[in-house]
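=== RUN LOG ===
request id: a7f3
mode: sequence -> structure
chains: 1
length: 143
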Amino acid sequence: MLTEAKLTNETGADRDVRLMHTPHALNNCLRTGLFTKSQVSELATFLVVQFRARSHLCNVLTHISGGRWDKVEEAFHQVLDPHTPKDQLTPLGVNIVDVLCKERGVTGRIAKPYFAQLIQQFLPTDDAVRIEEKIIKLSDGED
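=== RESULT ===
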C-alpha cells in the first residue's frame, strides 16, 4: 500500500511524503525491540499521515499545533522514542499523549482506539504492546 500526503514545514512549504507501508516493512521497524532514529521517524511519519487522513483528528491536531504539521511529526517522534522521558516532551507532545491515552470527549474516543488499531494492524503484537505501554507510562508521569 502506498501512502501519500503533504506535510507542511516551518516555512509553510509543503513536502510530499510517499511511504511504502506494507506489514513487512513496518514489522521490520520494531522487531528487535530496539528503536533506531530512522525507525521511529518512519513510524511517526506513518502515524501523521494516517491521523491527517481522519478529518476530526486532522482538525484537532491542526489546532493544537498551530497548523505546524512538522511539529506534529516531531512530537510523535518524541512520544514514540523509548528514550524520551515525560519531562523532555514538548507541550505538543504532552497534548498528543493525552489525546492518545485519555478518552476525553469525541477526540479521545476516536484517537485512542484508532491509534491502537493502526499499530496493532501493522506491527507485531509484542511491538504494538510495547509502544502502547510506553505511551501509557508517559501519560502516568513515569519515564
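=== NOTES ===
The mean pLDDT is 80.
The two ends are 35 Å apart (CA to CA).
=== END ===
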